[in-house]
Protein 1
Amino acid sequence: PAAPIITIDGPSASGKTSVARLVAQRLGIPYISSGLLYRAVALMCLLENVTAEEIEHRLGKYRLELHPTPEANRVLLNGKDVTESLHNLEVDAVVSAVAKRPGVRAYVNAVLRELPGPFVIDGRDMGSTVFPEAKYKFYLTASPEVRASRRVPERDAAYETVLAEILRRDQADATQSAPAKDALLLDTSHLDLDGVVQAVLGHLTERA
Ligand code: C5P
């Protein structure tokens, strides 16, 4: 198929980024993690020591770029690579408030819509809002407990802390996280990463 966009949405720690990366590798196309851009705006708040509401009015100070490479996405803020500063509990704590601001969503979506296809992209509202025309849409789910145990090794924090953070973020993200009506829902609670990737690839083959 010509330059398809494949969207993979789901709640935090549902495995969507790992799945998107592996599916993209198998197809030989870039993957994009849209959450990185919200994380970059959260980092702006931490750097400037301002609230989500205040950063909405300072977005013009920042040039945000996302560069997909075969292994990972690099995020540049005013030309500086900040990728390594985007996954920690400090950013986790402010990112949902940032992502609620309409001005922030418009800013991030404008960056995303400039990216040339084809690609596999993960997020919350990629299939429902940002790329409604995408040819293939998936929505991954898993219980909060399963998601917490998957995330503990990435956060260097106790299971209870990570579970609480996931439950809090589920609530905070609920409004922008409804699955697209035409998305395929995949419950990954009882699948390992490879199982989810196989399910996605199988569906793509069936629908091609
Ligand atoms: O996917 P990830 O956990 O990195 O996303 C971080 C945060 O960014 C989410 O908790 C959510 O608040 C926000 N987000 C969003 N819409 C997206 C992607 C992420 O609101 N498409």
Protein 2
Amino acid sequence: MNTTEKVIFEQFPYWEKAIGSNAASGKADDLLVFVGCGTSFNLALSLAAYANSLKCRAIAVPGAEWLNRPSYFWPEWQKTHVVALSRSGETTETVAAAKASRAAGAFVTAVTVEAESALAKNCDQLICSPTHPDEGIVMTVSASLMVLLSLQMIGQTVPASIVASARQLANTLDASLPDIIKDRSHFVFLGGGPLFGIALEGALKLMEMSQLLTQAFHPLEYRHGPISLVDEKTAVVVLYSSDQREAEAKLVGELREKGAVVIGFGGPGDLELPVDVDLSLAGLAVLPALQILGERAAQAHHIDTVSPRHLTKVVTL
Ligand code: F1P
């Protein structure tokens, strides 16, 4: 077992520490702007959707965009509550965006796993919980932790039982995976609402780990063009939404007819994984399983995820 894999399976005690470690907080009337880069931006997209569903107005913006052209995203960008997500707390664009927002009058919350980082030192509110010491270049445990902490920040209760649900999903997926993904080199991740950011994260994770071509779409968007690429090299991961399961299952039927294998989280597929949590927590519960999927796809193609090609733990300009 390599370190990436070990860390993915050992992440749950860190979840247990983070559960209940922070309460709902922030400035209720301000627009919430979730900002981050890479994985942290994908998480931001999902968190903004969750925040809106809890009646906190929210958007998600990549770090460099919020730094350089905030007025294209929100005209009164100075009067916002910026939630800057960064594992390292050192990513240039995210730290600079947090500093600039603060200087302009915004309230800035940092969500990170590094209490001594530049981001942690340049915020009005710090939300932080330690990560696994062996977490490597590819972000796994910290991604889950930042989602968990941010959900708590927007007032979502995260029950202790989520740990068992997430562990079970990762183990069940892992038990049946090798055969399903053998000979697949094009991975598509579909998720709607709060699961779209998580689908993007599944795609980014698998691409970073395995160097394979990955894509992510809102489920029904996939029929509007991208479906032309589906063939017997395609694996589609569907993150079913409880409110749209029927339409998504119909799409899955079409994809299977065209040669794709389908891994269904919470709905039909060649591999069906029961998701026993509500949509409000599903984004968090599926993350470890998506991380192990990336690792297994990499192993199937003999790619080392401990030193992924062209990647560094922190991107600074
Ligand atoms: C963000 C990030 C990661 C990516 C890579 C480089 O880091 O873009 O998502 O996987 O390792 O950094 P951070 O701001 O969350 O530390």
